Fold this sequence. Notes:
Layout: E1 4-7, H1 13-23, E2 27-31, H2 35-45, E3 48-50, H3 53-57, E4 64-67, H4 74-83, E5 87-91, H5 98-108, E6 114-117, H6 124-133, E7 139-149, H7 159-162, H8 167-172, H9 176-192, E8 195-203, E9 213-220, E10 225-233, E11 246-253, E12 256-261, E13 274-279, E14 285-289, H10 295-309, H11 317-336, E15 340-341
Parallel strand pairs: 1-2, 1-4, 2-3, 4-5, 5-6, 7-10
Antiparallel strand pairs: 7-11, 8-9, 8-15, 9-10, 11-12, 12-13, 13-14
Helix pairs in contact: 1-10, 4-5, 5-11, 9-11
Amino acid sequence: xxxxxxxxxxxxxxxHITGYELAGAPIIxxxxxxxxxxxxxADRYGARVSTDYRALLDDPxxxxxxxxxxxxxxxxxxxxxxxAGKAVICEKTLTDTADASADVYRAxxxxxxxxxxxxxxxxxxxxxxxxxxxxxxxxxxIYARSWQPSDLWNTPPSQILSNPPSRLxxxxxxxxxxxxxxxxxxxxxxxxxxxxxxxxxxYVPEGLDFDIQANALLWLEDGGIVHFETCWHPLAYAxxxxxxxxxxxxxxxxxxxxxxYTVKWDEPERxxxxxxxxxxxxxxxxxxxxxxxxxxxxxxxxNLRRFEAxxxxxxxxxxxxVVDEIIAHIYASAEQGRxxxxxxxxxxxx
Length: 350
Ligand SMILES: NC(=O)c1ccc[n+]([C@@H]2O[C@H](COP(=O)([O-])OP(=O)(O)OC[C@H]3O[C@@H](n4cnc5c(N)ncnc54)[C@H](O)[C@@H]3O)[C@@H](O)[C@H]2O)c1
């Protein structure tokens, strides 16, 4: 039985916690710099409590750690966890900069179990899309959108956001691009491979220090093109669920089209994600309507299975690094006002 340590007891940790609970993996040690946050989780599971992650990593009974602290702390914690020989499931984004993510990828490449928690790969609809794409020929184009509702366009931002450096800039490395857009960049990378070059545009409103809109064209190795946009937008009823959550990918290939619609990230048990497949030859349209599931729970269960079976984590540290490198290139391209070739500061080892 895999014994779990949890580092970071904030917002996102609840999905990891319930994932372990459902999988029957005991949470035996929890850590947060806020002792009351760690204690609240520890009380539920009879776990040990630390306010310093190094104490948790020194615990010989911990086999695997979930890193659910802020992205700005991921590099330091992940490197220490790998150094201590602990298996790691790290929340996305892998870190808050491409340099830091390259460091984590290099350390993880030595072979200790490591997964970057891009949970949207675990929607059954996303997995079906990946399976269908193996038999759909070459990708011609992808239209990818991650729009999330926000009042930032119409209402002055709260002090916590408008006093630079904002919490978003400090702890997530930016605004909607790392926070929301990263998920869709991960799906693009999973479906189509990494881009070879890109052209990015980023909108940072006056008085703020983070992006609320980012767009990019990304060129794929075999000539396909990706139109990517992410936005904290004001349209409260937009999207598949009519709740402002408007996230979709249209993938056009030489043999057909896929349309994937995801559901609101923190209420995934209300609706199932939807996949529509149009066969290019016959014109037949097939809708894959799956029951609503929580992809965080599927992600935890699958990575526990992989760890116990001696298989690598999924998505990998490499996958996490790739997304952060694409984000860094979108920001660089926007700043320079030109197309930038992808320059990989880490190379994938076989
Ligand atoms: N998968 C998703 O859709 C999704 C959604 C939201 C957030 N996230 C990711 O989850 C991570 C956490 O975000 P959050 O929204 O839960 O933030 P949060 O602020 O709610 O929680 C972070 C917790 O980590 C603690 N912490 C910070 N530094 C620490 C350290 N050095 N050691 C121990 N604890 C520390 C904080 O005290 C806090 O309790 C981020 O990387 C974020 O990008 C992912």
